[in-house]
Amino acid sequence: MVDNATPSSNVRNIEPDPSGDLVLILGDPSEQTYIRVSSKILSIASPVLAAMLGPKYAEGNTLSTTGSLELTLPEDDPEAMVWVCNIVHLKQSFTHISVALMEKIAVTCDKYDMSGALSVWGEAWLSHIDLSTDGEARYGRLLWIAYALGCQTVFYNKSYNMIWYHTEAELRLMKEDWKGTSIPEDVLKAIMKQRKGALKRIFTAIDALIAPFVRTKCHYSEEHSNKEACFHLAETGHFFQELLRCKLWPFFGDWTDRHLEQTATNLGTFKEYLGDFNSGTYYCTSSKRNFLPQMKPIAEQARKEKLGLCLNCIKQGKITTKDGNCSASRIEECVTNIRDIEANEVE
Fold first, then answer.
1. What average pLDDT does the segment 275-282 reach?
2. Cβ distance 191 to 309 under 8 Å?
């Protein structure tokens, strides 16, 4: 809105552009921040502000008629807006900032649709966050910041980590970090779907390994009265004991309380049966099954899967479609982006 009020005595003046034609007024009337900027630069960085300062709104008409404008933005955070304006005017040098400040900048960026101008900064800030030492850093908060700032790679990585390291109950708690934000609810659903799908593939592969053990018929030798367990039964028992030790069996029931990362790690600790074939105590025509080489590839395959979410697909509203998440960690790899480019080339 246009503001002709007299500035309060306690005013902070920030000038990303000392000769700028637009002054943004933020903060409480008792302690205001005045930011002098170029309306042209701000309009290039923000489609929202470009429309507001255009001919269809009173602010734009005042600016074009008088050549200057004071614009009051009472709902916006002054500190965040100072950062945003300094960045788009190329007056801000890089420095690490707190997660709390990142969130404020994310809110401003999301409101004025400025991710195109701030995504590189967001990638740099978020890549230096250490979740083990930063008490403010949680995957839910960081995913929202990456979403608002348009950080494709960070968004993929954080969503991947949420899928890989958390149970469904933990993921639902992270949703609290998204209250009041614009991040779609379908994002959480997509994360849970990716996580459950990966677990299902692991347990389906294990189930396929179990089948040969339980379906093989043991043949005790009729020539011996010693009826000790045959090799097949001993190996089968060991196989299921290992599954139990690795918390991979029984797996019928609710998968939501399992960590995908811990499941894959446990697969890697699977031990082969070391029974002695030649001891003469086993009377069985069954052949030895070396299952260890079959277990580890299941874990390796799980770790190779691209499970993270593609931010561009989400931004384009494709997350709920059949092929809505292409799991691209870079915008250049996004299927939706490639299709849009090809469509424009045809036109």
1. 48
2. yes
